[in-house]
Specification:
Layout (H helix, E strand, L loop, with lengths): L1 E6 L4 H10 L6 E7 L4 H11 L3 E3 L2 H4 L9 E2 L3 H6 L4 E4 L7 H9 L3 E4 L2 H18 L2 E4 L2 H9 L8 E8 L17 H4 L9 H9 L1 H14 L6 E5 L5 E7 L4 E5 L5 H9 L13 H4 L13 H12 L1 H19 L5 H15 L10 H18 L1
Parallel strand pairs: 1-2, 1-5, 2-3, 3-4, 5-6, 6-7, 8-9
Antiparallel strand pairs: 8-10, 10-11
Helix pairs in contact: 5-6, 6-10, 6-14, 7-11, 9-14, 10-13, 13-14, 13-15, 14-15, 14-16, 15-16
């Protein structure tokens, strides 16, 4: 049996990972779980999966002291050091970076859904993967699709990676009405059920910009080799274009559990967990170019991808702040793009950075973002 640790087990990706694992009682054993502060759900997960170790923040730790034989470790990094066969990184934000480093430094397999960590440190993570013999497996649906499409292919014959985007909750709203959008409306994604942060990022399409950077880092290509197309139906999850202009794509019902199953079962295919896809019932599949007037955050992220790591780190940090403030109704929807643009202007020339410098740029960008919010 493969042993699995899940960092961020009470979030959307963590819960779906445990759902996938529950279909494989004879194949996977959960040995570590972590949550930030969802004590009640973590308690339920510990009771069901009986991990040997868990982590939760200090403010919630006291209520879990009587949890069977599971032992609380001191921090996320200690969880990452547990020698699981697969460590799933499903925490959000830059908080997951050091855990990713620790998994790869012990030569482990890192199944990663944490966009910000790849965006900020993807080049360094790939170097650690090579140095210590570990493996990085993507959990994002789009990058999992590319991973599947590239199986057995010669990377030298790959011409382009194509990411698809549904357009998010506001895709049909007239542009002039976007300034009045509330968080409640922006969270109503027409296809996917995800966490709040990523759902807002889907509405602005900043999420897809982060995924462009992720694709660059994970598959080690330049920005001009990654393209975004709009695809409302979310049936084609990504495509790869080859040197002969042929395309290979991954089609499935929109269900993130397929990407999770792909990573956990690698190099094999998994079980029939998601619903089968009946193309005759799907009917029409449509594709179009993204509208940067509607989605300025996508353009800002793609500009950062071409500029270098410093700009990517700064925009990722700024977006974390801006989405949190938007969800708390402290800023408007339009403010997200406006402030990201200001952050881009300030950090676009930073270039590539060392691993130890990432947190410093992240902190500077957050401070600048809060200052820009206060000035509005």
């Amino acid at each position: 049996m493969k042993t699995v640790t899940i960092l961020g087990s009470t979030g959307s990706v963590g819960r779906q990972t445990l759902d996938v694992i529950s279909h494989y009682s004879d194949r996977f054993r959960v040995i570590g779980l972590s949550a930030y502060k969802n004590e009640s759900l973590l308690r339920e997960q510990i009771a069901k999966f009986s991990p040997s170790a868990y982590w939760i923040s200090d403010e919630c730790a006291q209520t879990l002291t009587d949890t069977s034989d599971s032992v609380r470790v001191s921090n996320l990094e200690d969880m990452a050091r547990i020698p699981a066969d697969i460590t799933v990184l499903a925490v959000s934000g830059i908080a997951g970076l050091q855990s990713a480093v620790e998994v790869l430094r012990r030569g482990g397999t890192l199944a990663i859904a944490n966009k910000e960590t790849i965006v900020c440190a993807g080049r360094h993570l790939k170097n650690l993967e090579r140095e210590y013999g570990g493996k990085i497996l993507p959990l994002d649906t789009e990058h999992s699709a590319i991973f599947s499409c590239l199986r057995g292919e010669d990377k030298k014959q790959v011409k382009k990676l194509i990411l698809t985007a549904s357009g998010g909750a506001l895709r049909d709203l007239p542009i002039e009405k976007l300034k009045d959008v509330t968080a409640e409306v922006a969270l109503r994604h027409p296809v996917w059920n995800m966490g709040k942060k990523v759902t807002i990022d889907c509405a602005t399409l900043f999420n897809k910009g982060l995924e462009v950077i992720e694709a660059m880092r994970l598959f080690e290509v330049d920005a001009d080799s990654v393209e975004v197309v709009m695809h409302r139906q979310s049936i084609v999850h990504s495509l790869v274009e080859f040197s002969d202009n042929s395309l290979k794509g991954l089609f499935s019902a929109p269900d993130m559990r397929l990407a999770i199953d792909t990573a956990l079962s690698n190099p094999d295919h998994g079980k029939s967990i998601i619903a089968p896809l009946n193309l005759s019932k799907v009917g029409e599949l449509t594709f179009s170019e993204p509208d940067y007037t509607r989605y300025p955050c996508l353009k800002l992220a793609m500009d950062a991808a071409r500029a270098g790591e410093g700009a990517c780190i700064a925009l990722s940090a700024a977006d974390e702040v801006l989405v949190e403030e938007f969800l708390k109704n402290r800023i408007g929807y339009d403010d997200i793009a406006d402030v990201l643009s200001a952050v881009s202007d300030k950090f676009l020339s930073v270039g590539d950075v060392d691993l130890e410098d990432i947190y410093g740029i992240d902190e500077q960008a957050r401070k600048y973002t809060y200052a820009m919010i206060g000035a509005k």
